[in-house]
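Project standup — Tuesday

K.O.: blocked on the structure for the chain from last sprint. Re-posting the sequence here as requested.
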Amino acid sequence: VAVMYDFNNVVTLYFMVNPSWKMKALDYLICAKLKIPGGILEFSNSKGDDLYKMRTFDDNGIKRPANLEKVMNAFLKNSKKTYNKRVEAVDDDVVPQVPLPFQQLINQIDLQIVSIKAKMAMDENIIKEVLENLEDNKLKELKEVFELRDGKTTGDKLASVADILWKEVGIINGNPHLKNNRIAMVELLLEVFGRNYHKFKSGNLTYSLEGFIKEIDAIENLRKGQGTAFERQNAAENQEVVAPRSCPLM
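H.V.: unblocked you, prediction finished:
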């Protein structure tokens, strides 16, 4: 099971369907178990051909258990054996009754999701730390990359941002691979701001970088009235407070 996040609260779940009828049923149960709003459930065979593609929730967040039931029935239609399924609605949620052997595997999936979410938070902190430590002129340079209408694609601009950050970062948060690996920085940027590295490599750029710009804006707003970067650095070294620009220095 592969779980891809795009940081717009949309989750794409990729399931490789085992020819075994039991595994097909398990795929369904896992899909129902996850119940992530906006999640797209994609079922593919070993050759990557799409078998089914559906949404568990519509755009208004309304649950559609009928679709889950439809997928389950489609899976079992041509099966040699019959899976004794039982699906009930509890608190408007689809709650499958899961056999114990399957429950153990589903628990592993739950742990995997927790791990992925933890990595998401760590990656966000890495980028935030990098941005917060950049000089004012570097932050301005990053924003200008996206604001210039020079005919460059979003991917080109993102690569330029990666170059700027890559040169500034060095080793951060115990990630030495970022020091001399520009591609790793590009990948990290894509992960943090809700993008898919595979799409970046294939040239299919369907994302926006609003989150990135908002992060820079937030840092710039925080710095307003706190003196220049040079003054802030001196103040930090001397443990002094830099007076706001709008007030006369005492």
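K.O.: great, moving the ticket to review. Confidence is low (pLDDT under 50) at residues 1-69, 74-99, 194-208, 239-250. The first helix runs from residue 21 to 34.
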